[in-house]
Amino acid sequence: MALRTPARAGEPLLARAPRAWQRMLPFAVMGVFVVSLLPVTIAVLTHDYGMGGGWAGALGVAQTVPLLLAVSRPVAAWGLVLSADVLGAVLLLVGADQVPGHAWPWTPMVVVGYLALMVCLGLREPVRTLIRVGLATGAAGVVLGFFAPDGVTNTVALLFVLSGCVLAVTGALRGLGDARQRAAEQESISEAERARRTLLEERARIARELHDVVAHHMSVITVQADSAPYRLPGMDEPVREEFAAIAASARESLGEMRRLLTVLRGDSGSGGAEGDRAPQPGIGRIQQLVEATVRAGQPVECSLAAALADAPVPPAVDLSAYRIVQEALANVVRHAPGASARVSVTYSAQDGEVLVLVVNGPARDAVVELERSGTGHGLVGMRERVRLTGGTLDAGPLPEGGFRVAARLPLDPPDSVDSRSEEPS
């Protein structure tokens, strides 16, 4: 992708190449051309064309040294070189003694240097500029051709054809570099959009799942507030009004939640709605999940702490622990078929948190990938669920092979969880 139109004016050729020697290569190549062509030009003009030494030296410098500028500013270098070449043709015509029998108006050294310049132009400039350069080269040769003396080898057509071919080839290479750069940029944008869409989809999924949990608590509040006057007789009127206001606010909140859930589902039909209304799973169903995975051909060991049965696990933590194990086991089946896995869910009363650990070894055998019940979002969904509860997630490959997922889910999550989006892995 280093062969592409430069991002800004004055940027050297191959400036975006990954290695230093590649970035210095254009300067070295043009330096070799200048060092080689300068003495040869002076010698040929002096001995073959019979031009004076002073004029030959000045003309040689004017025709070759600007090639160094072609690496970073090829259009300016082309203007200087073409002007020097035209001036050289005129000086040969009026001041040299041995022009008949030799190439004119473009000497062999002029042709070689000009083609090197065309390479720099073709690799750097857009097609419109290359067409103008080709037409200007042909026009200068045609004008000089009207004054060609007898007996010379006319090189107008030679330079025009060769320079056009070089511009076409190098321009195509630069266009290929531009196309690859645009494809890479588009791929990067698409990947970022896919990651962002996956993150948003997973957040919407989590919100839909937690709807039942929150709606249950709001319904309890409504029932308690409505029934308070009957359960607590002798209540003052202001207290009755206060409970009525609480019940009304709870009902209004439930309505708002249902409208939000409709938006998150993205449709007004009933497709998939029955699944959303089903009771959400929790830690108590992890054993069933492990048994289903074992029946699918994946060896899994499960360890659930007995203290979890009496632990005050909030519904969000309960659901998140199940989903993390579900997604981790689905990833084991997809990416490490046949590998042994170990699931451990423990309760730390001292720290007030649930610890979820899923570890698998490297793949050994090829099995049918039957486990497809995960969200399909991998670590993106795990991170979002852990962040929802204010916990931490440690996931990554093991040195001896395999993968490890460890999540800490506090039973008393903080009031506010950092809402900044995480980069998906």
UniProtKB/TrEMBL annotation:
One of its GO terms (molecular function) is kinase activity. Its EC number is 2.7.13.3. The lineage of its organism: Bacteria, Bacillati, Actinomycetota, Actinomycetes, Kitasatosporales. The chain crosses the membrane at residues 24-46, 52-71, 78-96, 102-123, 130-149, 155-173. It catalyses: ATP + protein L-histidine = ADP + protein N-phospho-L-histidine. CDD domains: HATPase_UhpB-NarQ-NarX-like. It comes from Streptomyces katrae. This is histidine kinase. Residues 320-412 form the Histidine kinase/HSP90-like ATPase domain. Keywords: ATP-binding, Coiled coil, Kinase, Membrane, Nucleotide-binding, Phosphoprotein, Transferase, Transmembrane, Transmembrane helix, Two-component regulatory system. Residues 202-266 form the Signal transduction histidine kinase subgroup 3 dimerisation and phosphoacceptor domain. It comes from the Bacteria. Residues 182-209 form a coiled coil.
